[in-house]
Amino acid sequence: MNTYTQAERRAIHKRTLVIVVIAQLFGGAGLASGITVGALLAQDMTGSDGLAGLSTTLFTLGSALSAFAVGRLTQRLGRRAGLTAGFLAGAVGALGVVAAAAWDSLPLLLLAMLVYGAGTSTNLQARYAGTDLAEPHQRARAVSIAMVTTTFGAVAGPNLVSPMGRLAADWGIPPLAGPFMLAAAAFALAGLVFAILLRPDPFLVARASASDVPAAGEGGGTADAATPERAGSRGIVVGASVMLITQIVMTAIMTMTPLHMKHHGHSLDMVGMTIGAHIAAMFLPSLVTGVLVDKIGRIAISCAGAVTLLCAGLVTAFAPGDSSAWMIFGLVLLGLGWNFGLISGTAVIVDATTLGTRAKTQGTVDVLISLAGAAGGALSGAVVALSSFAALSLAGGALAVLLLPVMLWYRRGGSRPSARSFEA
User: Fold this and answer.
1) Sign of CA dihedral 120, 215, 249, 371
2) According to the CATH classification, is domain 6-423 in 1.10.287.690?
3) Fewest beta carbons within 10 Å, which of 105, 142, 251, 271?
4) Domain map (residue ranges) of the chain
5) pLDDT for 155-184, tens place per residue?
6) Exposed, middle or buried, 373 (CB in 10 Å: 0-12/13-18/19+)?
7) Where are the alpha helices (DSSP H) in 160-226?
8) pTM for the whole thing?
């Protein structure tokens, strides 16, 4: 196995970041296109608001299954193999959604949304590629670079809903399937970028070049993230908890927002603009967030995420249904809170793992995140059907507050629960 000098590692790290940037430009478009109209397509085919969250549930379940597979494949063969396979599977799923809409086949839609979830999870797993060769004090910034470049495609995707819908209609396909045509092309291009350009593989280089010691003991991290007593299993549990709760809150409110706006007479263009602003807030602040996480600390930014999500829940709950400005503001806060939670939680996970188990652990944690999103998507439809969108938003804000005692426990120390379930 080849060994690499420190200078070579730095050069490969910089090249990896460039490749991740290119791939995420495409991956973001594929991610956002389907999210924007997934619930609307399910509602159109099932005729039920209560079942509208079914599409989100299925593609997040698909995300869970694929996150596990991509993590194991990465641990064995490297980032290039895992990310390529995940994105190409997502492209196949998007094409399946288009076929299901064209043939009005609900069973095919359910299966296709499950496979489409692979692109969604791989888009998130790509954030880890930049951390493989990053110094401990630069890990959050490496994550942020991958996320911020997702913004450009993610914002473009929802705003192409109407043009892609018109194109689909011209081809005799239901307009709501149009965005999935874009998603198929975008995911396929992202997969090809990783397949062709990600050489040498950063994960394999890191494994070949570095001794397998706990990341938290490598030095150079922030005080709350890199001390030995906060390493290992406790860090994995805390990092996973931060990302899991933020994912539930974000997915639940976001899933029902298009339907809520539709019921209040907003146009599809306005829905697309609102989701586009939300996704921009999910990714665009990442460069600043990464610096803050590395400089101020994982704990402080995780708490900031909890407070921001609480504010998002309050705004969306009490915003007038016919006010697009208030809905956009609430969804921007929702995206920003998710951004804080994902970057700080990811940094905690990387700090707490070793190269021998890192990719497997990352994949397993992302499985839990995807399952949390699936639960949020499934329950959101039921809550709205039985109560209201306002009740859903208030419940989401209340759930976000649970992050505060989690981070207090992390700061003060405590028992070290086993990480075997994460690393198995």
Assistant:
1) positive
2) no
3) 105
4) 6-423
5) 666 667 677 778 878 888 878 778 888 889
6) buried
7) 161-170, 178-197, 202-209
8) 0.73
